[in-house]
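Morning, I've got a small favour to ask if you have a moment. I've been staring at a protein lately and its backbone has me curious. You're getting the sequence in one-letter code plus the fold written as tokens. I've dropped the whole record in just underneath, so have a look:
=====
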Amino acid sequence: MSLSYPTDLTHAPWELIHPLLPQAKPGDRPRSTNLHSVVNALLCILMGDLAWRLLPHDFPKWQTVYHYFRQWQDDVTLQKLNQPLYQWERTAGHDPPFHPTTQWWIVRRRSLSLAEAWIQQQ
């Protein structure tokens, strides 16, 4: 990835969430997709309110990003990433990005419908 976007995850929060991402399955071919780029692409789409197909070309293909998004949503990886990212925002001296009961990840699946509800913590 050559360009930098305001939504990109910096090194510190990336180091917090990287261990929480699912590993490639044993026996499968090695993963060729950079997961940091996938996370940055997701943030670009979700925080920038972009349609999947409008993802800038310096990110992985939108289909690849969408695949990981669906996988991580289904296996609750996105929920696991919420707490460390929220805590990082608070301890970094920033205002929380959203109301404390709202997930750090704003989840919208534009490919399935125009808009869906936010995932919220209870």
